[in-house]
């Protein structure tokens, strides 16, 4: 018999895949908001290893990255006394609800997901069913916890929309079961682009290491990667995503790292070349990341502490998840004895 905890605050839920070392795109687009939101909401943050295996992963690396992801989230400021920080595969309710939701999701809806279209190209002829079904698993993650807000980067907008559609459909068909969640985007950084191809989003699993800044890159590497970032031949620092995608992206990264607005950044670099601009962006990002890296390396050595967080927080998540799953099971007509 599981004991059920009913939180009094509104609920925030989000997840990140242990598919590589987190980038500044992940940080500015999502995790910075997680850290801020945990103060006012009952928050759950999940390392989504079930999602990660929708693309090929090396098992040993996946396990190592799962530990690293928990350590990095703690180093970034997720407070384990305030938030639940857990690993998706340790809470079996996610898979069971996914199956139930699969039975009220349409093939057409999943075929329209742009992330599926992009990622399936990398799988050639044998596209895995898991990759196709990924958004339903994400809907189950969100709906299991009666989530109010889902802080994500812009690329996840379509998936959160689908989770809403599935919740509304299920509730109409079987009676009220799930809260209908809302996506939450921060003021800036919702879409940080690749440093090498600034019309594509920065991604932690990109094969080109120069295209992203990892949160664990050392200052020299960070400065070098920004120096190599693709810009244009105009030599003027101003924001125009259409005409100047590279420079605009660097300006947005600089804005996220310093807290300065885009107009102030334009003024700061008036009459200066791209060399000075790129060096300033590199230095600001390196400075932001140094304390995080220090904490991360300390935490990573505390394996027992990380295991204890994973175990106790997965148990807490499971208690909350079970409450919703039990209701969904009953609504669809499963026997309970
Ligand atoms: P992968 O390359 O393995 O698909 P990813 O870098 O896209 O990974 P995810 O684990 O899919 O990262 O995403 C974690 C969170 O970071 C999500 O909320 C996602 O929207 C956000 N995010 C990812 N990339 C960016 C980006 N370039 N800009 C802003 N937010 C981002
Ligand atoms: N699919 C998301 C990660 C993710 C997520 C979630 C985000 C899995 N489950 C639930 C928010 C809520 C991604 O790849 N960025």
Characteristics of this structure?
binds adenosine-5'-triphosphate, binds L-tryptophanamide, 5 strands, mainly alpha, Tyrosyl-Transfer RNA Synthetase, about 55% helix, Rossmann fold, about 325 residues, 2 domains, two-stranded parallel ribbon, 3-stranded parallel β-sheet, 13 helices
Structure characterization notes:
With 337 residues, the protein is mostly helical. It has 2 domains: 11-190 and 302-332, Rossmann fold, CATH 3.40.50.620; 209-296, Tyrosyl-Transfer RNA Synthetase (Orthogonal Bundle). It has helices spanning 24-37, 49-52, 59-76, 93-102, 107-111, 114-121, 129-144, 157-174, 219-227, 245-258, 262-268, 274-300, 303-332, and strands at residues 11-16, 42-47, 83-87, 149-151, 182-184. A 3-stranded parallel β-sheet has the order 1-2-3. It has a two-stranded parallel ribbon with strand order 4-5. The longest helix is centred in the last third of the chain and has 30 residues, at 303-332. The protein is globular and about 75 Å long. Adenosine-5'-triphosphate binds at residues 16-17, 19-20, 23, 25-26, 29-30, 152-153, 155-156, 190-192, 201-205. The site of adenosine-5'-triphosphate has 21 residues, from α1.
């Amino acid at each position: 018999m599981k004991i059920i905890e009913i939180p009094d605050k509104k609920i925030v839920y989000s997840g990140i895949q242990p598919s590589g070392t987190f980038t500044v795109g992940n940080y500015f687009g999502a995790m910075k908001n997680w850290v801020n939101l945990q103060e006012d909401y009952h928050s759950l943050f999940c390392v989504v290893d079930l999602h990660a295996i929708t693309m090929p992963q090396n098992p040993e690396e996946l396990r190592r990255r799962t530990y690293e992801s928990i350590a990095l989230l703690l180093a970034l400021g997720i407070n384990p006394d305030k938030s639940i920080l857990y690993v998706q595969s340790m809470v079996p309710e996610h898979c069971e609800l996914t199956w139930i939701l699969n039975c009220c999701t349409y093939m057409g809806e999943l075929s329209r997901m742009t992330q599926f279209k992009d990622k399936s190209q990398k799988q050639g002829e044998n596209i895995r069913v898991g990759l196709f079904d990924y958004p339903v698993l994400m809907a189950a993650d969100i709906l299991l916890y009666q989530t109010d807000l889902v802080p994500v980067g812009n690329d996840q907008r379509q998936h959160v929309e689908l989770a809403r559609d599935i919740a509304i459909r299920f509730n109409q068909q079987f009676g009220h079961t799930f809260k209908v969640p809302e996506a939450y985007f921060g003021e800036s950084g919702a879409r940080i682009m690749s440093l090498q191809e600034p019309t594509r989003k920065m991604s932690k699993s990109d094969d080109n290491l120069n295209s992203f800044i990892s949160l664990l890159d050392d200052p020299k590497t960070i400065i070098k990667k920004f120096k190599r970032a693709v810009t244009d031949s105009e030599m003027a620092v101003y924001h125009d995503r259409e005409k100047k995608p590279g420079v605009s992206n660097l300006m947005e990264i600089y804005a996220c790292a310093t807290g300065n607005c885009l107009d102030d950044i334009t003024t700061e670099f008036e009459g200066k070349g791209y060399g000075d601009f790129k060096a300033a962006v590199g230095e600001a990002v390196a400075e932001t990341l140094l304390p995080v890296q220090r904490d991360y390396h300390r935490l990573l050595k505390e394996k027992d502490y990380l295991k204890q967080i994973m175990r106790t927080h997965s148990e807490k998540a499971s208690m909350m998840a079970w409450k919703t799953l039990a209701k969904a099971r009953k609504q669809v007509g499963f026997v309970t004895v």
